[in-house]
Every structure is written in C-alpha cells, then in structure tokens.
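pasting input
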Amino acid sequence: MKKGFLIGGGILLAGILLQITVGPVRWERLAFPVNLILLIGFLAVMAFMYAFRQKVRFFEWAMQLEAAVPALCYSLVLTILLGLVAQQEDGGGVPWLSQMLDFWPFVLSYAWMMVILGLAALHRLVHFRIKEIPFLLNHLGLFLALVCGALGVPDTQRLHMTTREGETQQQAEDEAGMLHEPGLAIELHDFIMEEYPMQPGLRRAMPKRFASEVTVYSRHGHKQDAVIEVNKPLKVDGWKIYQYDYDEQSGTESTVSIFELVRDPWQPFVFTGILMMLAGALSLFFFMAPRPGKKEERL
Amino acid sequence: MSWDLFIWFALSAAVCWIIGAVFAWKGRHWLVTGFTVLGLLVYAAFIVGMWLSLERPPLRTQGETRLWYSFFLPLVGIVVYGRWRYKWILSFTTVLALVFICVNLFKPEIHNKTLMPALMSPWFAPHVIVYMLSYAILGAATVMAIYLLFFHRNKTTDAEMAMTDNLVYVGLSFLTFGMLFGSLWAKEVWGTYWGWDPKETWAAITWLCYVLYILFRKARPREYRTALWLLIFAYLCLQMCWWGINYLQSARATSVHVY
C-alpha cells in the first residue's frame, strides 16, 4: 500500500502546484460542452488504462484494492478538513481550506478515486457474471452519481421569480441579479401562509405551511393550474418550480411569492446513480454481507 | 382512536416484543417470530386507527414520527433475526423501541410541537428511522471492536471478525439508505441532491469511513487491529455527524441541520 500512499501524495502535491499556478478550480468554466468532453476524455483514459493493463504494470495495479485503500484515505482526510473548517463563499477564511470544493487536491483526490473505482467496475463489466451485479450496482452507481453530479454543477440553472397576486410574471433573476426569460410564465392567484397558534415564550408564531395557487403557462401554450408548496415542487418543461420565499415583512398577509426555478440537465444520470446505489445497498444487506458460519451463531 | 389509548396498545406490544426477545436468546425461532409479529400487529392497529381518525398519515409531529420509529425497530429487528439469527438483535431493537415509547408516554406535550414546512415530507420518517437503525447497528459493531481490542487481545478469531464485518455491512447498507433518502428529499425541498451542508459533509465522512473499513478488510484480512481501530474512528465521526456538529464552530453558523 506504500505505493498507493506515495501516488496519493504526488496527486496532493500536483494539486497544490495547480492551485498556486492557475488558482482554484473554476467550476463555471466546465459548462457544456466542456463537461461532456471531459467526461468522454475521462472514460477514454480509463478504457485505455484497462486495455493496456497487461503491458503497463501500473495500470494493472490501479485496479486493485492496494490502490483503492490509500486513494480513499486521501479523499477521507480532505473531506474531514472540509467538515472541520468553516466554508466561506467570499474567498475569506483559511486559505485554500475555506474553499475546499474549489481546492485542486480535493477535486483531484476524488477524481483519482473515481479512476480506480471505474477501472474495477470496468473489469467486472467485461467479465460479467450474475454474482457481480451487487458490486456493479454499488460501484457504477457511486461513479454515476459523483461524476455526473460534479460535472453537472456548472449546467444547473437556478433562477428566482418574484410574483404578485393577480399578476403574471415571465422574468426571473439569476444569482448575479441578471434577468432571464425561462420560457414559462407564472400567474399568482393566492399566496397562502399558515401559522401555528402562538406558543408561550415565542415572539412570533411558527410557520406551518407556505403555498402558492398558480397558473403556469408553458412555452407551447399549455396552461396548468397548480398549488406549489414547500416539499411539493411542480415540474414544467424541464424546469422544477419550488416555493422559495415571500414578503417576510407582511407575513401571512404577503401578496408576494418568490419561486425558485431549477433546471438540471444531468439530473437523470445522478438520479439513476442514486437508484443503483439504493439497489446496491439492498444487495449489500442481502448478498454481500459475509454470512457467519455455524460457529459464531452460538455467540 | 386517540393518544389516550396509546398506553394500552404500547404496553401490550412491548410485552410481546420483550417475550420475543427473550425467546431469541433461547433460539426458539417460531415463538420469536410469533410474539414479535403479534406485537407489531397490535402496534400497527394503533397507527392505522390514528391514521383513520386524523384523516391523514400520522407523520406530522415529533410524537407521531416516534410512533413510527418504535414500530419499525422491532420490524427490522425480526427481519435481521430471520436472516442471520443474531440472538441479541431483538433485545437491542426492543430496548430502543421502548425508549421511544417512553418518550411518547412521558413527554406527550411534544405532540403539539410545531414542525417547520421543510420537514413536512414523506421522506422525513424513513430518512430518520433508517439512520437511527444504522447508528444502532454500527454502535454494536463499535462495542464489538472495543471488546476485541481491549478485552480479548491477541485472541481475536476469524469468526469474531466475520461477525463484526457482518454488522458493518448491514449498518452501512442502512447508512446508505438514510443518506440517499436524505438526498432525494433535499432535491424535493431545495432543488439539489447534495449541498455540502456540514451535516451532509459529516454524513459523507462517516459513510467513507465504513467503506474504507470494508475495503481494508478485503485488502488486508489479517490486520485485525488496524481495522478495529478504524471502526472506533468511524464511530467518532458518526457521533460528530449525529450531534457533534451542533457544537462545531464551523457548522453552527451555516448548517440547516443544527437542532
């Protein structure tokens, strides 16, 4: 495993050098089609490594647990740092560690882990047998969810649409405050806010429900009446519409409702990965757990 | 059906579960299954009754979700028992179920406590329930690790390690369910599967630790002690995820999970 820890150290060092020379990872630059090209390149590298595994000993080694364990250790340590150091979006805080998600060593350590995981899964795909299904579900599921989740970040659109009762709105703001036309319009009929009865010791009543009665007009002229509330988003034309905010000054009397519109083209792949991992967790339970022999049944 | 009747249903169910758990130690499989299932039916009758009289699933208040915890615990206990015949698993799940029943009996005012809109989701109960269950199972694995490391030094057998492995596999599968239910829920309420909220980060750390244990056991099957130390470390991370982050400076300011 020494070799694995040395390689991990090398990746860490390369990451730090990258961080110093080109600065933090800029996820927004990976927007489509860069992320797709990157994904194809990533898969091609793995296919290449797999094809030449018998010629290059390093490639053969990289499919093994000997490589996986140290790689996982590095990702784990960096994730623990992410959990210990307060993250700040403004670039302040502890240098590098307060922006861990843009820190090259963090990103590279996960990428390296995905290479090892991908190679191991590829090997079992090529030598497919029924009993490898649990392994494949766990590994390919995690691969899909993590890789597509990360590459999908720059393609995710998140807009905020402010609507007023009786009016129809078709413009929405992005995080930078730029106006966009998402191609659908929302007419707000009624914003509903219910509160729990006042409880002693509390200055304000606790909110119980936020909901908006709306009509949504899609690009193709479809009209749909709906109630959008927290935990019950509405799906229209590839957008998911979430109840996001309201006029907090007016409270229950608010006639303003703010929606968040989210479009996430990589979402189906991440979702597939999550479903595979769920099936994998089931098979972990039923098939993969080592069954104790008769001896320890007496324990 | 109302909460006034809860004590009678809960007591009858608890008696059945305790009898089932006792028979598990004696290896009387049919009696174990019979009594545990009978207790579950009694308890389920109360839940169905509440559902009908409230005209909604009883999942809204904290007290109502505890109702489900204490139902699911023996249910999963009997499934695990049926699969692996662990003698202690039903005692463990019964005690946990009793704790939740007692909280509901002695702190009934919590039934009226408010639940913020973000928590009003069908994901709430399964997310928390499977997490609690996996914490319990992984706690058992940690007890095993401490026993093997400090009280049974140098005498650890393959059989004992196999049992520890088994607990970790089962615990990790529930941990995975809890984590992924959480991410599916997060998509419904915030529009994103994963947001690196401090609670989520520590959940990922905990998950990675147990995955590391499994890989390490496969890579170095003879190095028991390193593996067992890893289990103790993993459980510390789990504690951090469970309640530790409430005291962590980096999490207090930003986490939506601090409560």
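fyi Residues 33 and 125 of chain A are 28 Å apart (CA to CA).
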